Amino acid sequence: MLMSRGLEAEIITRSQGMLENSLGDEILGISRVAPRSGYGNLPTINSILVDLTGDTACTLLPIIIMSPDPEPARPGPVPEGQEPKAWTPVVLPTARLQGAGVVYRDKLVGKLNPRETRGIMWMRNKVSAGAVTVECPDCGRSVALEVTRSTAQVGTRLEKGNLQGSVRLRLEGNLAEQGCECDLTTERAMATLQKRLAEAVRNEIAEAVAKTKVYGTDLAGFGSALHRTESKLWRTLKSRWPQEYRALPVTIEVGASLRRTGLSLKPPRVR
C-alpha cells in the first residue's frame, strides 16, 4: 500500500515506466529495491492493520511521487560540413518513493523525509542492505560504505523510577566505493570509517526519534517493548502513551564493523 500527495489518478495516467512496461511492474520493482536501500518498505494491508491495532496504534505509509527523469540526449544526424547536434532530452514523469506518511489510528498526522524514514527502518530491522556515504579520513572526499547486515534491539528500562528507552544497532558492511586515491585498507583508515559509519547511522536514527516525538507516534516500538517486560506499568501508561513517548529519553548505541574492502590491490596513484 502506498500514498500520494496529489490525485492518485495522475500517477496512474501520467507515469511512464523507464525500466518496465507498466506502472504496476514499476511499483513491483520498487517494492523489491526499497528494502535494499533502506529508504522505504512497501507494507501489505495485513501489516498495516497489525500496526494500527497494536500497542502503539501507528504505522508508516511510503509516499509515491511523480519525478521527472530526463532521458539522455541522443545524437542526431550530422550533415557534412556542420557541427554535431543532439536531441533535446525528453522529460518523462516516473514514479518513485520519497519519504513516508505517519498514520496514528485512522489519521495522517505528519510525514518523514527519506533520512528519517530510513532511521525508522533501522530500528524496525527492515533494512536488508544499504549504502551510507561518509567522508574519507585522509582527504575528506566521499566514500560509500555498503551495509550488508543490520540487527537492532529496541527496549525500555526503569532507572531509579524513571522510564528510559534504548536502541542498540549492530552493523556489518564493506567498503563499496571511494572518490579518491587514498589507501583505505590500513588499520587506522578502517577504524575511522567504522566510527563514521556508526555515527552517520546514529544521526539518522536520532532524527527519526526526534521527528516521531513531535507527532507522538512510537513507530520504533518502545511501547511494545514495555508491554513485554513491564505489563502492569504499560496498562497504566497505555492511554496516554503519546504524551509519555514525547518525554521518553532514548539512548542510541550503534556499532559498525567493516569486513572487506572489495579491493584485491591498492588503488593506483596518478603521478
Within CATH, the superfamily carries the name Nutrient germinant receptor protein C, domain 3
Give the overall silhouette.
Answer: flat
User: What is the total number of structural domains?
Assistant: 1
Major sheet characteristics: 4 strands, mixed
Total number of helical segments?
8
- Bin the strand percentage: 25-35%
What number is the mean pLDDT? Answer: 82
**CATH architecture grouping:** 2-Layer Sandwich
SSE topology string: EHHHEEEHEEEHHHHE
Strands of the widest sheet, in order across it, are: 1-2-3-4
Secondary-structure-derived class: alpha/beta
Q: Based on DSSP secondary structure assignment, what is the total number of beta strands?
A: 8
Helix share bin = 25-40%
Description:
The protein has 271 residues and is of the alpha/beta class. The protein has a single domain (3-260), classed as GMP Synthetase, Chain A, domain 3, CATH 3.30.300.210. The chain has helices spanning 8-14, 23-37, 45-52, 114-123, 187-215, 222-229, 231-237, 241-246, and strands at 3-4, 58-70, 91-104, 107-112, 130-135, 142-159, 162-178, 250-260. Strands 1-2-3-4 form a four-stranded mixed β-sheet. A four-stranded mixed β-sheet has the order 5-6-7-8, sandwiched between helices. The longest helix is centred in the C-terminal third of the chain and has 29 residues, at 187-215.
Brief digest:
The protein has a single domain, classed as Nutrient germinant receptor protein C, domain 3 (GMP Synthetase, Chain A, domain 3), CATH 3.30.300. Helices cover 33% and strands 32% of the residues.
